[in-house]
From TrEMBL:
<dbReference type="GO" id="GO:0001217">
    <property type="term" value="F:DNA-binding transcription repressor activity"/>
</dbReference>
<feature type="compositionally biased region" description="Polar residues">
    <location>
        <begin position="1"/>
        <end position="11"/>
    </location>
</feature>
<dbReference type="GO" id="GO:0032993">
    <property type="term" value="C:protein-DNA complex"/>
</dbReference>
<keyword id="KW-0238">DNA-binding</keyword>
<dbReference type="GO" id="GO:0046872">
    <property type="term" value="F:metal ion binding"/>
</dbReference>
<dbReference type="GO" id="GO:0000976">
    <property type="term" value="F:transcription cis-regulatory region binding"/>
</dbReference>
<keyword id="KW-0678">Repressor</keyword>
<keyword id="KW-0804">Transcription</keyword>
<keyword id="KW-0186">Copper</keyword>
<dbReference type="InterPro" id="IPR038390">
    <property type="entry name" value="Metal_Tscrpt_repr_sf"/>
</dbReference>
<feature type="region of interest" description="Disordered">
    <location>
        <begin position="1"/>
        <end position="30"/>
    </location>
</feature>
<dbReference type="InterPro" id="IPR003735">
    <property type="entry name" value="Metal_Tscrpt_repr"/>
</dbReference>
<dbReference type="GO" id="GO:0005737">
    <property type="term" value="C:cytoplasm"/>
</dbReference>
<keyword id="KW-0963">Cytoplasm</keyword>
<protein>
    <submittedName>
        <fullName>Transcriptional regulator</fullName>
    </submittedName>
</protein>
<keyword id="KW-0805">Transcription regulation</keyword>
<comment type="similarity">
    <text>Belongs to the CsoR family.</text>
</comment>
Amino acid sequence: MTIIDTPSTDTAPACHGAAPSAGPHGYSGDKEAHLKRLRRIEGQIRGLQRMVDEDVYCIDILTQVSASTKALQSFALVLLEEHLAHCVAAAAAAEDGGEELNAKVAEASAAIARLLRT
């Protein structure tokens, strides 16, 4: 399993210069849908654990790993889209947003690079 190095929540920049744990973030409007989706993914991972515990055939487990991976990637893309539409767009619209915009674009580019490495 690959562990992705992500910034901690106490140092990651937030939208509009707010504290990192403060909202609203781009995903806030769909928070419940996102949580539901993540719970479904969590269920897939638990299913993988059960499959290993029950000595299920390797290829069947790999098929489920692939499905879980795709589900996480899909979630990540939605989250990235919301970040671009909310946080990056807000930085672009800000009167003095030049530095903040550059930081948000660099942050999004780094996130995209991490997604592509997985």
